[in-house]
Structures are given as C-alpha cells and as structure tokens.
Amino acid sequence: MANLKDIRDRIKSVKSIQKVTKAMKMVAAAKMRRAQENMEQARPYSSRLTEIIQNLLPEVDRDLLPLLEVRDVNRVAYVVVTSDKGLAGSFNSSVLRKAENEIDELGKDNVDVFCVGKKARDHFKVRGYNIVETHIDFWGDLNFNHAIKIGNGIVSHFLNGHVDEIRVVYNEFVNVATQMVLTEKLLPLEYEAGEGAVADRLYEPSKDEIVKSLVPRHLNVQMWKYLLESFASEQAARMVAMENATSNSEDMIKDLTLEFNKARQAAITTEMLEIVSGAEALN
After folding, report:
1. Which of 25, 22, 26, 4 is nearest to 14 (CA)?
2. Within 10 A of 235 (CB to CB), how many other CB atoms are there?
3. Rounded to an integer, what distance in angstroms lies between the CA atom of residue 110 and that of residue 81?
C-alpha cells in the first residue's frame, strides 16, 4: 500500500488536472456556441446554392466550364479536415481512420492529400503519403478568406489536370454529443440520379451565365461549410471529452481519498498496537 504522502500528492495532482479540464470545458462550450451559430447561418445558403446548381446542370453544356468536366478517374485528391489540437476524444482519429482506409483502397501512390489541420499533416507525413498542401494555424481566427485560399489551391490542382476527382473527409455537426464523419465529392460537379430541374423556371440573364457565376462561388461556400462544420464538431467533441475527464477525475479523487483513509487508519492501528505491545513488555 502506498504511503500517506504519495496518496496525498496524487490527490493534489488530480485536483489540479480537474481544474484544467473544467476550464477547457467552459472555453470549448463558449467557442462551440459561436461556431454553431456561424454554421447554422451558412447551412441554408449552402443548401440553396447547391439546389440551384443541381437544377441547372442538366440543362447546360458541360464544356461551358472546366470545373464541370467529368473525366475517367485515374488519380484522386483527398482533402482531410482535422484540428490543430488534440484533447477532443475521437474527433481527429475518426476522420483520419476513414480517410486512410479510403486512400489505401485506391492505393496511396494514386492519391494526393490536402491536409487541413496539424493532426492530418502529422498523420500522413509520418506515413509517407503524397501531401500537396497543408493549411494550419488558422482555426483561431477562422473566416471566409481561409475557405477561399484553401479552395483556390484545390480547384487549381483539379484544373491543371493533376487529379480527376476531389473528395473531402470531414466531421459534420449533428448535435453536441454526435459528429458524423462524411466523405463528399467536391469536384467534378455532378448531380445524383433523380435530381435536376423540377419546375419550369426563367433564368436571367441566362442559364450559362448563371452557372459561370455560381459555380466558383459554390465551391468556396462548400469549403466554408466544411470548415465551419469541422470547427463546431471539434469544440463539441472537446467539450464532451473534458466533461468526461472532469467526471473521471472526481471518481479518482473519491477512490484516492478512500485509499488515503484506509492507509491512515492502518497506520493509526499499527501505532496503537506498538504502544500497547511496548507497555505490555514493560510490565
């Protein structure tokens, strides 16, 4: 059994860590509320823009824009969206595991990787994957310009013919306790069977001009959506992880306190027996 000083030091250490986890939970909760508000404001715009483009795509010539070109898929690029920091439960590991499994199915030599976040960069760099671009240290002041910058690099990679398809792996925010890892195809733009024009609409100035204007904006908005969803999911995952850590530390403190009391009682009992035995010996 550990001595009283060791147990007392462990209790003190756990209480100090508990203060840190409580503080991190409060910070994550505040960040999550702001991130969730931004995400929920962007969702309707993104959905509506996607719907308009899906309605227009069947009615325009795909030669209108290089971004609409559908090629035989020989090489794919993956955009993997993670965080810069850990202590967020399985937030990063779930994305990295899904992305790595999908990349390995295609063959790592046939895939280029865009890493968004330090966790993705560190994971794929040490394993020898072909990393094209890395974007880190921007989550603290996340804004739409970051989405434009990241999106421009991805779109250029596609337009230059380096890859034939681009997919994005990210966490979608469902609620505070649930984040869903999704893989979405970003380029080329296609519509699913059964989707497309559903009503007779008039478009001004013309369908071609609208597509030319909306498609680049749509790609930037999609990248903005991925960043917002991931950031809100990260803060929610960290808040839950820190709450669990705080609860676990409370249980540990109770166990250590019980062990401390048992050790102290054993020490007192031993001391009393020694006193009694000494007195009996003198008699």
Report:
1. 22
2. 26
3. 20
- Report the predicted TM-score, pTM, of the whole model to 2 decimal places: 0.84
What does the block give as tokens for 136? 């880190």
Say whether both 127 and 55 belong to one domain.
yes
- DSSP bridge pairs for 167: 78, 185
Return the sign of the alpha-carbon dihedral for residues 25, 228, 35, 47.
negative
SS3 176: coil
Domain of 249, in residue numbers? 4-20+242-282
In the Cβ-directed half-sphere of 239, how many Cα atoms lie within 13 Å? 20
Please check the confidence at residue 1 and state whether its pLDDT lies above 70.
Answer: no
- Residues 164 and 183: their CA atoms lie apart, in Å, by 16
Residues 65, 91, single domain; the answer is yes
The whole-angstrom separation of Cα 268 and Cα 260 is 12
